[in-house]
Amino acid sequence: FASWEVSPLIRNREGLEGEFRSNPNGAEMEFGGHFGNPSAAFLSEEVIGRAIVPGRSIIRANRDRTKFIIAVDPGGKAKKKKGDTYVVAWGHCETLICWIDGLQGFDGQIVTLEGGRHEIIPVNPNDVLDFILQLVRDLGGRGHVMEIAYDQFDSTAPVATLQSLGFPAIETTFTNAYKNEMYGDMLQKLTQGLVKIYGEDLDGFVD
């Protein structure tokens, strides 16, 4: 369904005309219910499927003194709206294999106001920060976390907070050169079977 057919916050398509003019394909996916596969440009579903390990569940306890990397991606942000999603991912490497050990999503909430009006309550970045601090404790403490990498957008404050607490937090800058290197490295490792992800989604993050 399109957003204007089911969302109480969007009355009709005409109200999104600016979005469709500036980014037709993106607007069709975000609001029109025509979903694409953004990773298909460089990753096939077959390659992604081979990375999933059935029977392996999310890792939150560090029993082997493993070193982890945490990545944080605030999503749903634009100049005209507040951020409404976050994803935290964490993983580690074993010799040549890169493991994606966990994913945790945070979504904004729709609340009903007087008169039948609705409002989106965005994700509180402090809730995400609290989750990260607890995750670090679960993974064995700051000595077992090599890096906490935030997306560059609107992440200066949480990165500064983590750095002030002694954590190795950085704010990445997605230049074209950086993205090309990152995507190329990921494609190479996936096609070679060097990236693995847990297959048992006990926390229900992936439906």
What is the distance, rounded to the nearest whole angstrom, between the alpha carbons of the first and last residues?
A: 18 Å
Tell me, briefly, the overall form.
Answer: globular
Approximately what portion of the residues adopt beta-strand conformation?
25-35%
| Unreliable residue stretches | 77-81
Query: How are the strands of the largest sheet arranged?
Result: 1-9-4-3-2-7-8
Can you give keywords for this protein?
207 residues, alpha/beta, 7-stranded mixed β-sheet, 7 helices, 9 strands, globular
Describe, in plain words, how this protein is organized in 3D.
The strands form two sheets. Strands 1-9-4-3-2-7-8 form a seven-stranded mixed sheet. A two-stranded antiparallel ribbon has the order 5-6. The protein is an alpha/beta fold. Strand 3 and strand 4 form a beta hairpin. Helix content is 30%, strand content 28%. Mean pLDDT is 80; it is low at 77-81. The protein contains seven helices and nine strands.
